[in-house]
Amino acid sequence: MNVLIIGSGAREHAIAWKLKQSPRVEKLFVASGNAGTARLAQNITIANDDHARLKQFARAENIDFVVIGPEAPLADGLADKLRAQNIRVLGPNQNAAEIESSKAFAKDFMKRHNIPTARYETFTNFDDALRHVETVPYPIVIKASGLAAGKGVILPETFDAARDALRHIMLEHEFGAAGDTVVIEERLQGKEVSVLAFSDGVTVKAMPPAQDHKRLLDGDLGPNTGGMGAYAPVNVPEHFLDEITREILQPTLDGLRAEGRMFVGVLYAGLMLTRDGARVLEFNCRFGDPEAQVILPLLESDLLDVFEACVNGTLARCDVKWKRGAAACVVLASGGYPNKYATELPIHGLDAMQNRNAIIFHAGTKLQNGQAVTNGGRVLCVTGVGKNLGDALDTAYTAIRPIRFEGMQYRRDIGARPLTSPNPSLSRRGTSSQPSP
Ligand code: AMP
Ligand code: GLY
Question: Which residue lies with its CA nearest to atom 14 of ligand 1?
């Protein structure tokens, strides 16, 4: 089969890396990919929002199967357009992608279908929103309803901070139209876990639970980012995945189908484990990044088989097998990220590592005269696989040592506070001569 992957981050590199292991994949293309995907696939320079050229390319190259990595093309209806051409696509249609692209829709949907989530109200008018903040009897979170690249969620500590956030989002249009509608919800306490699942629209199969590290700095300090590292599986109670499947994932899929929004692809539930049980913080309509970089290395089954089962509606009969052990990844980011940063800086030491349990997934990189250079905020994602979390972390942090680029920053405490850690303040690392971020 000829397969086209849409996207250019470490998530798409991980998808390409795993698909490449399938004996049935003949030609593999990535649009537009990075210096890492260039090593195992053919990169093509077509922008993710150029649907006409992507369709044309798929037809010209006899593409049998398309995997859409990021949320934006799904929200823009790329899957619908490819399906209209009889191309098989892993990724939901636009109306099912709304579970991610509109938080207001997602919250109302959860209410309609009794899916546990935080209390909330939705606003399109600044004065109404402000009045609500003045009177609401619980601590709040403010969310731009539309897609805002992970930056549209504010956890204000004071009334003034809440008012400023509402002003930025609703009056100054910081996130453009994504902030025309705002969700104000109850702030929940607990540990966060990401549960991703394969879905064919009817059957859902959960993947090992993962934990992202969204803050820039060690100890969960500093600004939110796209994700600075992750590990899987998270040590959850027995039957946890069964319960999440029964109470959250399956009702979500069934509710979407009942509303004419068949969900084919990867459904991602961001959960808060509160004292009263798991609550949905958000849904995503695709693999998480960096969650994919720790989940896919644990998949024993052929990823193309699983993807095809999702698209063909045969997931119930597909035996999705996972490896024992654990995986952890550490993101190497540009100096200055998540704000302004330099690009086109040479990356050194990419070929020094000799451990087959370590995988360097590329994110913001590109080739310049044969040399890999930086090309984004998150540059590399180094994954280690091991018999347990400690092992996986050691492998990942050891593999980072030879890698250098100017301004490189990363967290030293990925996986240092797993869910059941007896010592939650433990920070285990200082493995590199790189200055602390
Ligand atoms: P979201 O994109 O909606 O998952 O929000 C991004 C991050 O904000 C989450 O990963 C949480 O850390 C935090 N967050 C979102 N909603 C809530 C909530 N209701 N209570 C507490 N924290 C939240
Ligand atoms: N890691 C969070 C996300 O992909 O949205």
Answer: 281
Structure tokens at 345: 């800086």
Pick the CATH number of 2-94 from 3.90.180.10, 3.40.50.300, 3.40.50.10730, 3.40.50.20: 3.40.50.20
Tokens of 204: 């859902």
| Domain 191-317 listed as CATH 3.40.630.10 | no
107 exposed, middle or buried (CB, 10 Å; 0-12, 13-18, 19+)?
buried
Q: Judging by beta carbons within 10 Å of its beta carbon (0-12, 13-18, 19+), is residue 246 exposed, middle or buried?
A: exposed
Domain 326-400 bears CATH identifier 2.30.40.10: no
In the reported structure, the alpha carbon of residue 105 is separated from the centroid of ligand 1 by a whole-number distance in angstroms of: 16
Q: Locate the domains of the chain by residue range.
A: 2-94, 125-180, 191-317, 326-400
DSSP class of residue 18? H
Residue 242 CB contacts under 8 Å (≥ 6 apart), including other chains: none
Distance 268 CA to ligand 2 centre (A): 9
Q: Are 13 and 361 in contact (CB under 8 A)?
A: yes
Tell me the ligand closest to 193's alpha carbon: 1
User: Hey, do 125-180 and 326-400 end up sharing a CATH topology, with the first three levels equal?
Assistant: no
Query: What is the full per-residue pLDDT of the chain (437 aa) written as tens digits?
Result: 999 999 999 999 999 999 999 999 999 999 999 999 999 999 999 999 999 999 999 999 999 999 999 999 999 999 999 999 999 999 999 999 999 999 999 999 999 999 999 999 999 999 999 999 999 999 999 999 999 887 889 999 999 999 999 999 999 999 999 999 999 999 999 999 999 999 999 999 999 999 999 999 999 999 889 999 999 999 998 899 999 999 999 999 999 999 999 999 999 999 999 999 999 999 999 999 999 999 999 999 999 999 999 999 999 999 999 999 999 999 999 999 999 999 999 999 998 878 899 999 999 999 999 999 999 999 999 999 999 999 999 999 999 999 999 999 999 999 998 765 433 333 333 333 333 33
Give me the residue label for tokens 């509160």.
Answer: 274
Cα(373) to centroid(ligand 1), Å? 33
Which atom of ligand 1 approaches the CA of 143 most closely? 3
Residue 147 in contact with ligand 1 by CB distance below 6 A = no
Mutate to test the pocket of ligand 1, among 196, 282, 286 (most ligand atoms within 8 A of CB): 282
With respect to CATH, is domain 125-180 assigned 3.30.1490.20? Answer: yes
